[in-house]
Amino acid sequence: MGIGIISTKSGDFTFQSADDIIEFIRTAPQNKNDLWISGEQPYPCIAVCINGEYAAVNFFQNDAGEMWLSYNDKNEKEVTFIAEGDEWKPDADAVIALNDAFSCIREFLNTYERPTCIQWQEL
After folding, report:
1. H helical segments located in the chain
2. Mean pLDDT, range 85-104, rounded to an integer
3. Rounded to an integer, what is the distance from CA 36 to the centroid of its chain?
4. pLDDT score of 1
5. Are 107 and 115 in contact (CB under 8 A)?
6. Could you point out which of 13, 31, 32, 97 has its C-alpha 20 to 30 Å from the C-alpha of 88?
7. For 15-25, what is each residue's pLDDT tens digit?
8. What is the pLDDT of residues 19-57, one digit of tens each?
């Protein structure tokens, strides 16, 4: 992994390992706010929304609109997240387990490509 940058409402934080990023997410009070994670360049990047044990992940390939949203056809629970300061309630099939989001973050930071550890729906 190269450099990983997390952008939050509180500012940008730079990390040298996926483990450090995941520990930061686990221990920092996020209040359901979204986290943007990238490498040294702004794209590709992922945006992770977290609420308790649930998450929704967006993958942005570039600034031209190529993006995907996490997909989980086994989830039926509706979860509300905060995205860019506003409440966001995606379709239930976009909600994944928080641990799956951590796997996504880890894979993204190793490849800087769309993670293959979860399913995606193109937007």
Report:
1. 18-27, 98-111
2. 95
3. 7
4. 62
5. yes
6. 13
7. 998 899 999 88
8. 999 998 888 765 557 899 999 999 999 999 999 999 999
Residue with tokens 């796997």: 103
**Mean pLDDT of all residues in 75-80:** 94
Q: What single letter denotes the amino acid at residue 5?
A: I
Q: How far apart are CA 74 and CA 60, in angstroms?
A: 24
Return mean pLDDT, the chain.
91
d(CA 66, CA 106): 21
Q: What is the CA radius of gyration of the chain?
A: 13
Distance of CA 35 to the CA centre of its chain: 6
Least confident of 10-14, 29-33, 103-107: 29-33
Residue type at 25 in one-letter notation:
I
Residue 38, φ and ψ in degrees, nearest 5? -145, 175
Among candidate residues 39, 35, 27, 40, the one with its CA nearest the CA of residue 11: 35
Contact 71, 28 (CB under 8 A): no
Handedness of CA 108, 111, 115, 116 (dihedral sign): negative
